[in-house]
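hiii so my PI (J.) wants the whole complex modelled not just the main chain, which honestly fair. so below is everything: two entries, each one labled with what it is. i double checked the lines twice but i was tired so who knows lol
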Amino acid sequence: MSEIKSTGTSQNKTTSPAPPQKREVTLHINGKNTTLSLAPWTTLLDALRQYLGMTGTKKGCDHGQCGACTVLIDGKHINSCLSLAVMQQNKEITTIEGLADGEDLHPVQAAFIKHDAFQCGYCTAGQICSTVGMLNMKKGNSPAEIRDLMSGNICRCGAYANIFAVVEEVKEN
Amino acid sequence: MRKEKFPIGIPGVNLREIEREVPVTEPPAWPINDKLKHVGKSVKRTDAILKVTGKAKYTADINLPGMLQGRMLRSPHPSAKILSIDTSAAEAFPGVKAVYVLRSNMSGAEPKGGEDNGYPEIKYAGQAIAGVAAKDGQTAEEALKLIKVEYQTMPFVVDMDEAREPGAPLVFEQQVEQEETGGGGGGAKGLEQQGNVRGPSTKSFFGGPRGDVEQGMAEADVIVEGIFRTQVQTHSALETHGIVADWKPDMLTVYASTQSTKGVRSEMASIFDLPESKVRVICEYMGGGFGAKYGAGNFGVTAVNLSKISGQPVKLMLDRKAEHLAVGNRPNSWQELKIGAKKDGTLTAIKQESYGTAGIGLGAGVGRVAQAVYECPNFLTEQYDVFTNAGPGAAFRAPGNPQGAFALEQLIDELAEKLGTDALELRDKIDNSVVRKEERRLAAKAINWSRRKKPGSDTGVIKRGIGVAQSTWPRLIDIDSTAEVRMYRDGTVEIRSGVMDIGTGTRTILSQIVAEELGLEPEQISVKIGDTLFPNGPASGGSKVSGSITPAARNAAYKAKQEILKQAAPKMEEKAADLELKDGMIVSKTSGKTMSFKDALKQMRTSQIMTSASREDDYGGFMVGTFISHGDLGSVQMAEVSVNTETGFVKVEKIVAAHSCGRPLNPMQIQSQVNGGVIQGISYALYEDRVMDKNTGHMLNANLDQYKIAFSMEIPDIEVINIEEYTARSSTDAFGIAEPANIATAAAVANAIYNAIGVRLYELPMTPDKVLKALNLV
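here's the output for the full assembly
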């Protein structure tokens, strides 16, 4: 047996790092202004989930690889885990909680139910926001384009075929 | 007991009636689906609105007052002894409320005896060591860096072939066992262990070896054989494993992303020496599991300890990297398979030998498809586990069987070719299953099998091919499945069970069953599940939810119905036996008198009726023990692919998936589940691959980018064919579909690739480099 010894990790400091400097960040989310005190490196995803308790937007990988955290910024879909909250001030942020008009579901939400476009539902908020973003751009005009533009959202349960049906239906109406 | 007539067989094929003796407490037999109102219909998911509006609360979404954030320290070394751990700096870090060091490793095989210095030995990179709970996640992460661990690193081996060599570094020096889990983890007990190799296991729950394979081979006119390899696949559920633990003196409450609320409860009770009545496990919504989410887990034990120490609730969710490394995977396989047959196709012998690594876990076999799909008098399997310094495997959608099907179904194809028979004709000859025969017929029609050409005969760069593969899965049952139905004076009806909904639609089918029995609409039934305060339900695994909990649900509703009819009868001046529930009304079959269901509930003696029922034994008895019904879930899948012979790129164009799950309860949900199984199968066939670095012992692609999973660009046209198959074994006669949907896909794709290019691929995933190598182009 080898006898190489290694001690801990390289960051074995015993002194505490300085506490992060927080700053005021005002976000316009689903039509309402909210002011938070955040460390500047707080992602929009963490601001929503941890600081505002808006848990409809999901964390799947935290690296921009799964799309579960997709939200709309001025109508365009982005990965909220790759965006800092401070960058999104003075912009219109729409999350899954803000798509329905009271009891009336957004047409994309309604079509997701009609076509059974989810199973566990964990990726669904992201899939819906990506669909809405794509339609806002007036894209998704062919099956190939839908597949291409929806390729940022992983669904491990495999609801893709039904999601494509959603897009085609909403496009038609 | 009373005698009752039930439908049995497949409508349009062999539907008939059978008389069985059933306990008098059982409800009357249901007719086939087209005579029912809600069962067998594509009822929309009862939880759909919550899921599309972001209101469904998953474990990751639980926020309790005063809740802390937990994070875990994991080993950077694949093999090491921990000499010391100093947590003092972490504990002193501002904002830290608790630090906990694990004293044993909760997952994988357990060595017997050996020295113990108070710390578990490190057996793989990513193994959990300690946890920190702090006021926020960032503080907890900073504090982790302050934990000083002194390691003595040891030699390691992560490659299965190297681990099998004599003199390879030993993952375990002692004999090991692993407790079996509800999800199919663990291996056979008491097997021989030499070096890193443990086995062979020659048995499954359908018995051991049959006949004499050597003699069977000697009797064969044709022998086909091959060596097949499959890769390690990680479950990669989008919601990672995680838990919110809330330790209170009178009750431990745990919110867990789990497939088994009762499994987590019993494990937590045992670890923390609590009565089960003082542990509550809740899983209202969960973001996928696929077999990996059972038990307490190292993270769960850590979170509970952190909550106990701090006196505050603690949330501990794994990050994506840890999810790949530490909480389960489908083991790889090396399989040698040999099949002997007579000239007319009759099989004379099947011999199978396999090695697989579940890392530090057990259970890396190749399933039972080779044993169970085809009639063959002589059969022998020898399945070995090989230990490597990698995270423990876990049950993954039909554990072992996609691996086994990849080898078996390719060799059956090869046999057909050698015998000069069509691949479907040979299967018609050697496969006794009535349901698979019908599935082959329907699938062949759907994919237009008759246009299938000779292997490799397409001209041009892009060649197309069609292939078939079959599978079987047992009808597993958990008789510890209980449902309670409540009727309230305000006219509402509720069903309660500890079963959870992994995403398959358990809530919806329960509402359909109760509505059918009570003559109500599914949306009138409130479904409360995923909580151990309710009676135990089955775990969501093994495709056993539908077969286990729906008969209990129907029977509980039937009992409640009898009670309300008994109470309403005198008020209606009728006999209870003459009353039935229909369209929200109590109706007298003799006089036609009616009373609304709601009015009857308003006049109940007490403010609620509560009835419960558990899964009865199968009518006519189980086939094996009390956990396997007669028959099997037979499946046939067909694939059409195109292969670019210049780039090696394989595209799956179409999959036809023909499946049986007994009485189908909700065709829409079944179709969604089969779509998902097929897509996971394509992903397994062509893309997914855990890559371990032999030199460092680390996984190189522990993310969702380089660990490639099929996504929107790679989804073929999928056609699902769902056969109704009645067996008259329970009050609903329903079974599950999750596992069958996934078993045959990779094998069907492999056979289609062979049909396209005329060269067989023996290794998964079938990436462009392997295709080009097979074509002798690289």
